[in-house]
Design goal:
Helices cover 14% and strands 29% of the residues. The protein is an alpha/beta fold. Strand 5, helix 2 and strand 6 form a beta-alpha-beta unit. It has one domain: Glucose Oxidase, domain 1. The longest helix has 9 residues. The protein is globular. The chain has an eight-stranded mixed sheet with strand order 1-8-7-3-4-5-6-2.
């Protein structure tokens, strides 16, 4: 049985800090207009076209990458938490589920959305 304190996904810590927000699954540029300020971007990978999203996102979680990946570098520049190489993140995180990203320890936790507000 999974404890509420257990992470729903783990990966490599890539940008320090903790942030909480609604998860936004982003599969590509066609999904960019769905991202709202304070959302947590959950995706397979990022590239330079994604940089504008980092200005409004609370955090980022990618399924691929390393501490030298685009997502990690840009997250550090914007001062937002990031977890990379979080295999299975897109399937583990339900769309619009509120999550907490711990970029210091490389963990993503589910948050009780009834107890969270922006």
């Amino acid at each position: 049985m999974v404890s509420p304190s257990d992470p729903i996904v783990t990966g490599a810590p890539a940008s320090r800090g903790v942030a909480t927000g609604p998860a936004r699954l982003v599969r590509g540029v066609d999904d960019f207009d769905t991202v709202r300020p304070g959302d947590v971007i959950v995706c397979r990978t990022t590239d330079p076209a994604w940089t504008a999203l980092f200005g409004i996102a609370a955090a980022v979680v990618t399924e691929t990458g390393s501490i030298l990946a685009h997502a990690a570098i840009v997250a550090r520049e914007y001062g937002i938490p990031a977890v990379v190489a979080a295999k299975g993140a897109m399937s583990a995180v339900a769309k619009h589920q509120v999550i907490s990203v711990d970029g210091t320890h490389g963990q993503v936790h589910a948050v009780d959305s009834a107890r969270w507000s922006r």
